[in-house]
Write a structure and sequence with these properties.
By secondary structure, the chain is α/β, with parallel strands linked by helices. The chain is about 30% helix and about 25% strand. The protein contains 14 helices and 21 strands. Bound molecules: flavin-adenine dinucleotide.
Length: about 525
């Protein structure tokens, strides 16, 4: 982690002031409350900071312009990992920090995070075996691994994982990381932040921020009702991900010394290419790696690309070239060739990386950089550049290490040992928990019991409420998505749209027909019209 301390003048202070006066007149000053901290951005970093802050006794406001996790945090490769590849870039600190976090996160969220074994077939034309062995030795030892299994070599001619690979791949390596439901990790942090008193406002966009003597005055717009409100906070944390620079320059109107490098990464989902629970990591001739990960029982998730991007981060799509790249990279290894027509779902995310001047997008640091705007007599602002899903909790702790001089009564860090909502059981007890749920709610099909437990954990019982039969679950919208769950997501997890429900809070969209999705959309519309 790098901390940058900058001092910056208001870029367009006089313009800003004129504009501000007009805005202030129009905006409704909702409350005189001055929050200790306001956070812009409801991705993993913003929600992680909000949870940490609220649990340390601070009053917290979080503004998210869209849905929670609607930015990069739902478009990752869904791994809690050290990043074997980063060892080659000498990012030992980042890898060690991330490896340590794997087991911390697994312990606090064993419902949405689980161990994943990765198979790395040895490609004779690429990295030599000795290099991979050294890399895996470091990977096994750097993070003080306790819960996860160590790496070992495998004979691909004998092991089932070799059966789907081309015959020239005879030897490989296997090591541990974890997989995660990235979007749910974000939401659970927000739920816990709220349980600790944070105000989480989704569909609420920061339009303009202005530094007053001892606080920030923030003007935000409810993007659904159009209502504009003002909020005040003593400290501002800018966790706007790919929009981090835009927030500084266009919303706060300050100069920044740091810049974000936007690097797009895309994934494709195809019908499953193998029938076991291990994932593959494939080396490519361009020095990059791609993953092929078992996904939602029926599919294989393949990614990712690294494409420099300019323009609006909101408009990132998977390009035809990226789909071709991913299909070709997978076809280099699997016996069963895939083609663009096989793609069932695809998504692109933007890495909001700190621009460290590297030429190649794949070489830029994945570590986070915090930029602290600390000017005598003015309230502070801290901006988050880069980072990983894996390091979000550590990042939040570091944020408070930097901000504690403004927070004299700050309580100590606490998030490493406190389970996220629904995660209050031991990772080894997952199967026992699912069996217990099935016993108590026998009308749930086994695969549904597993799906909902892996989403809500011990809170599944709360989600199911007093349901005693399938009928008590209400309308079935398709696959195993019932009204009961949809209402829970609306009432407890800020879900509003079909996309929130079937692509972020769950992945039920993969199993639903266009007709079923349309029916859910209509149901949501009529529910909204009735203002339920
Ligand atoms: C392809 C890809 C694969 C990855 N794979 C992994 C992986 O396997 N493991 C891993 O650890 N990491 C991975 N990462 C990295 C990780 O996903 C990101 O570092 C992380 O999600 C960034 O989170 P964030 O909260 O900073 O940004 P975001 O999730 O983008 O959140 C920022 C939020 O700010 C909101 N916002 C912006 N402007 C405003 C405003 N004016 N007002 C209110 N809200 C605003 C946005 O709507 C957005 O929701 C991957 C990244 C990519 C792109």
């Amino acid at each position: 982690m790098i901390l940058l301390i900058v001092q910056s003048a208001n870029k367009k202070s006089s313009n800003n002031l004129d504009k501000w006066i007009i805005v202030t007149k129009e905006a409704k000053l909702l409350q005189e409350k001055v929050y200790d901290i306001a956070i812009i951005g409801g991705g993993v970093n913003g929600c992680g900071v909000a949870r940490d802050a609220a649990g340390r006794g601070l009053s917290v406001l979080l503004l998210e312009k869209n849905d929670l996790a609607s930015g990069t945090s739902s478009a990752s490769s869904k791994m809690v990992h050290g990043g074997l590849r980063y060892l080659e870039q000498y990012e030992f600190m980042l890898v060690a920090k991330a490896l340590k976090e794997r087991e911390v996160l697994l312990s606090i969220a064993p419902h949405i995070i689980s161990p994943l074994r990765l198979v790395l077939p040895h490609h004779k034309a690429l990295r030599p075996k000795w290099m991979i062995r050294i890399g895996l030795f470091l990977y096994d030892t750097l993070g003080g691994r306790k819960l996860l299994d160590p790496s070992h070599q495998i004979d691909l001619r004998k092991d089932v994982v070799g059966k789907v690979l081309k015959p020239e791949f005879t030897h490989g390596f296997e090591y541990s990381d974890c997989k995660v439901d990235d979007a749910r990790l974000v939401v659970l942090n927000a739920v816990d932040a709220r349980q600790h008193g944070a105000d989480i406002k989704t569909r609420c966009e920061l339009k303009q921020g202005f530094r007053e003597k001892d606080h920030w005055r923030l003007q935000a717009k409810d993007v659904i009702s159009g209502q504009e409100n003002e909020y005040k906070a003593r400290i501002l944390v800018n966790a706007a991900g790919p929009w981090v620079s835009e927030v500084v320059s266009d919303r706060i109107m300050l100069d920044t010394t740091s810049d974000v490098r936007l690097v797009k990464g895309s994934h494709i989902v195809v019908p499953k290419l193998f029938d076991h629970d291990r994932a593959y990591i494939f080396q490519n001739a361009d020095n990059r790696v791609i993953f092929a990960i078992p996904f939602q029982k029926e599919f294989t998730l393949i990614g990712t690309t690294d494409v420099d991007m300019t323009g609006n981060p909101g408009g990132a799509d998977v390009s035809k070239d990226e789909v071709d790249y991913l299909c070709n990279a997978a076809n280099e290894y699997f016996t069963k060739a895939i083609k663009p027509d096989d793609v069932i779902w695809e998504f692109a995310g933007i890495r909001p990386l700190f621009d460290d001047g590297e030429d190649a997008a794949s070489e830029i640091t994945r570590d986070y950089v915090l930029e602290l705007l600390d000017e005598q007599g003015a309230p502070p602002m801290l901006s988050v550049f880069g980072g990983k899903i894996t390091t979000y909790r550590k990042l939040a702790e570091t944020v408070f290490d930097e901000l504690k001089q403004w927070l004299p009564n700050l309580k100590p860090s606490w998030t490493a040992k406190s389970p996220l909502p629904g995660g209050d059981f031991l990772p080894d007890d997952l199967e026992k928990q699912i069996t217990g749920l099935q016993r108590d709610f026998p009308f749930l099909a086994p695969e549904t019991a597993r799906r909902v437990f892996e989403a809500y954990g011990t809170n599944t019982r709360q989600m199911l409420g007093g349901c005693k039969t399938q009928e008590d679950m209400g309308i079935c919208f398709g696959t195993d998505l019932y009204q009961r769950e949809v209402e829970y997501l609306i009432d407890r997890e800020w879900a509003i749209s079909v996309e929130d429900i079937i692509w972020r809070r769950s992945k039920t969209g993969l199993f639903m027909s266009a007709k079923e999705i349309a029916a859910l959309e209509n149901w949501l519309k009529s529910r909204n019209a009735l203002n339920l």
